[in-house]
Amino acid sequence: MTHSWQKTLVSEHSTIKQALEIINTEALRVAVAVSEDRKLVGMISDGDIRRGLLRDLTLSDPVSEIMNRQPISARFGTTKEQLIALMKKKQILSVPLLDEASHVVGLETLHGALTKKQYQNPVFLMAGGFGTRLRPLTDKCPKPMLKVGGQPILETVIKSFIKAGFSNFYISTHYMPEQIHRHFGDGSKLGVSIQYVHEEQPLGTGGALGLLPDDLPQDLPLIMMNSDVLTQVDFQSLLKFHVNNEADATMCVREYDYQIPYGVINGEGNRITNMVEKPIQRFFVNAGIYVVSPRVIKSVQKNQRIDMPTLLEQHMAERQRVLMFPIHEYWLDIGRMDDFNRAQTDIHTLGMCDD
């Protein structure tokens, strides 16, 4: 997804000249007209501007006079393959990406979707857990090797990174590691490099960082992810966000809604001040996906037991450069049996499997 899409946004009251400056400066060839709450209202191309000027409009007229009020759009989280097919079918060069409330949350261009950048950043996948909540399925099989859509969960995760341009993988193992080693080997069958680190004793969600080899790229952040997560998060955008903000660590978060099943009463003393019927509380929850810079990796000692929240809190106290990256794309933590069953359906619907 194009990373400077925010700079293409204009108000429908902006002038044609302002839209033209954006089109020329940002090299994305479009401006996106949005309402005050960032809902999509139109698209402006250089062709729209030329046609407006031929109708005797001036550069000081509002873009509402020339914009396409019925632009083609797509849901955020749509795969690049689907976006490419859409743009080719509609013969357009870009498509705004919308969330469930029609807010603009991205912009994909045909050129950007077709151009695949290669990343040297390491990808570290946590695959050592016991998967106790999925017993008896995990009695003789580590959870990352359970098949969803005809292939192991971990294979789907690795292939999603490969599609995004990553090829340098490390896998942390503990429970039944031989099954993972036997299936993936050194990664050559997938055209990538896979190395393993083994936890003799469980080291928590962050301790395995201390087992990584010394020959990691010294200046590149690492993407770290639980191997039981199915997601269509844009890893390129995540990495770009981390680098641009000079973060020590970035945690992906999901919005989680919880509805209190009762009317909530607020008061002062014995006087009721207001009543809210079954209010919804919204929280951000940890999605099990991180970007960590070399500074954080080096702070974990070999065989040190530490969980990621504790590790990140330590760095927050030092420099306040731990950020969160809200993800709107598909995400599923396969922790329970109902999650596992749901994944069997979702993976086909989302086109994340090979068959």
UniProtKB/TrEMBL annotation:
InterPro entries tied to this protein: CBS_dom, CBS_dom_sf, Mannose-1P_guanyltransferase, NTP_transferase_dom, Nucleotide-diphossugar_trans
Gene3D superfamilies on file: CBS-domain (3.10.580.10), Spore Coat Polysaccharide Biosynthesis Protein SpsA, Chain A (3.90.550.10)
Swiss-Prot/TrEMBL keywords: CBS domain
Domain of life assignment: Bacteria
Domain named CBS: residues: 1-59, 67-123
Keyword Metal-binding: no
Coiled-coil stretches: none
A Pfam family reported for this protein in Swiss-Prot or TrEMBL: NTP_transferase
PROSITE patterns, alphabetized: CBS (PS51371)
Keyword match Iron: no
PANTHER family, sorted: SUGAR-1-PHOSPHATE GUANYL TRANSFERASE
Listed name of the protein: Alcohol dehydrogenase
Source species taxonomy: Bacteria, Pseudomonadati, Pseudomonadota, Gammaproteobacteria, Vibrionales
